[in-house]
Amino acid sequence: MDDQERWQVDDDAADAYQRFLVPAVTGPWASILVERVAVRHGERVLDVACGTGAVARLAAQRVGAAGHVTALDINPRMLEVGRSLPPVAGAAIEWLEGSALEMPLPDAAFDVVTCQLGLQFLPDRSRALREMRRVLSNTGRLALSVYGPIEHNPTTHALSESLDRRVRPGASLAKRTEHALADRDELRALVAEAGFEAVRVTTEHITVALKSAAEYVRIQLTATPLARLFTDFPAAERQRMLSEITGDLDAALAPYLRADGLFYPQESHIVLATA
Q1: How much of the chain exceeds pLDDT 90, in percent?
Q2: Given a cut of 90, is residue 123 above it in pLDDT?
Q3: E-state strands within 13-135
Q4: Helix or strand run (H / E) with residue 127
Q5: Where are the beta strands (DSSP E) in the chain?
Q6: What's the mean per-residue pLDDT of the chain?
Q7: Which residues contact 109 (CB under 8 A, 6 or more apart)?
Q8: CA–CA separation, 202 vs 214, rounded Å?
């Protein structure tokens, strides 16, 4: 695998991603994205950087048996987990391994292209967007999402600060990269420069519910690339750092802690455009 898509999880992390992150985070955002682009019965949908298929599965239900959904990702383990899930009512999903920078797909083959919380991790975002434009029909629609500013996403901000302090400077790079396209004007210009028209950027919010700050830390360090940060440390040192990081987040996220759990806001930008 080359360095085309940087946010990659290992085999065990793909299972954890589906188990923990999809219900709490990517599932709710997928519902918003599919609703905003108004996927219709019979349409052909491509979900780029699909992960385990949160968006693809919702789109399959929307388009029905008359439609078609292709789920594209460079990570074979993510696709394997997606294929293993019970099928949804509607279109069968075609799971396709491939890069967002050079899609193994024909021109003008889709009515809708989606990309949820993935564009920011691509080293050549302009190229990826041009590929999305290429595979869209002349009347096609684009819908993508990226996280807003890290300062507007308190858990990510707190975790990033703690990782840089407790592990090493720069340890939070993977988390901070999640917010690399947070500037709305730059995001709009990037999409327009790829050939899209009527580009609209809106900002949306959800509330994520978890049991505790400790659960958030555990999920992030098992279901994301952050798991690799700790593999070279001795067990005792690793446990010490995890305890310190959890303590940092307990303090930083106190405003979002209730007796029944952690309830924190998350902000993303939703981009809609036409071919």
Answers
A1: 85
A2: no
A3: 44-48, 68-73, 93-97, 110-116
A4: helix 125-135
A5: 44-48, 68-73, 93-97, 110-116, 136-147, 197-210, 257-258, 261-274
A6: 93
A7: 44, 46, 135, 137
A8: 32
Provide the β-strand partners of residue 197.
274
Length of the chain: 275
**Residue-range domains of the chain with CATH:** 11-274 (3.40.50.150)
- Around Cβ 118, how many Cβ atoms within 10 Å? 22
Query: How far is Cα 25 from Cα 52, in angstroms, rounded to an integer?
Result: 13
Q: Which two tokens stand for residue 45?
A: 């949908």
Give the whole-angstrom CA distance, residue 41 versus residue 185: 33
Q: Residue 28: pLDDT above 50?
A: yes
Residue 261, Ramachandran bin (φ over 0: left; ψ between -120 and 50: alpha; else beta): left
Residue 182's identity, in one-letter code, is A
Q: What span, in angstroms and rounded, lies between the C-alpha atoms of 174 and 107?
A: 33
204 neighbors 32 (Cβ within 8 angstroms): yes
pTM beyond 0.85: the answer is: yes
Spatial separation of the C-alpha atoms in residues 14 and 18, rounded to whole Å:
6
Report the chain's C-alpha Rg in angstroms: 19
> Hey, which residues does 71 pair with through a beta bridge?
47, 95
